[in-house]
Amino acid sequence: MSRLSVFQVRTSFHGTEYGGWTICPDGLTASSLIYSFGVGEDTSFDLELIAQYGVEVHAFDPTPKSIAWVQSNSWPDRFHFHPIGIGSSDRMAFFFPPDDPSHVSHSILPRRNAASAPTQVQLFRLKTIADMLGHQQIDLLKMDIEGAEYEVITDLLDTHNIIIRQILIEFHPFFEGLTYNATANSIRQLEKRGYRLFNISNRGTEFSFIYL
């Protein structure tokens, strides 16, 4: 992938080293709406946004281990959890566990050495989810969805009735069947629709975009 140009905006980092993300804080207030896909067992990012900006967070994860973890904890009023996933279509899908049973992240992509059998989970398009929740604007959309991001990006960019100001994505080109060319193509798609890349994590997998 060729060297990427990074747009200059004000930035801040929120969350743990493992689960944190870089955002542009400008304009985030108590009226802001956050969609956070991929909870796992780390909500440090979501909780810091609520504490610092007073935002409302809708978090999503259909992973059984993640659902159990969320249900075993208490949460602030502005944190809302939904045990569903995001996809490029509304469907039931197999969710494959990681190779290491101590890890939490599942994927719609088959795992060669999965620790256990896949489970079936419910996926919805972003448009379907926003319609169900009655939202037409999302101030910040975060996706750590284990390889499904490529198909989801194409679908959400074709959904013209939802305004998304910032998009944070973890890309997984190292997964079997995926490539760095797919990541470059997704970035080009976002840039053609007016999104500007403003941060790449030190790990080189988390990318932050803002609509200008």
Automatic annotation (TrEMBL):
GO MF terms held by the record: methyltransferase activity
GO aspect biological process, one term? methylation
Which terms are listed as keywords in the entry? Methyltransferase, Transferase
Taxonomy, superkingdom: Bacteria
Q: Indicate yes or no for the key word Methyltransferase.
A: yes
Report domain Methyltransferase FkbM positions: 52-197
The record's section on NCBIfam families has: fkbM_fam
Tell me what this protein is called. FkbM family methyltransferase
Q: Which organism is it from?
A: Candidatus Chloroploca mongolica
Print the organism lineage.
Answer: Bacteria, Bacillati, Chloroflexota, Chloroflexia, Chloroflexales
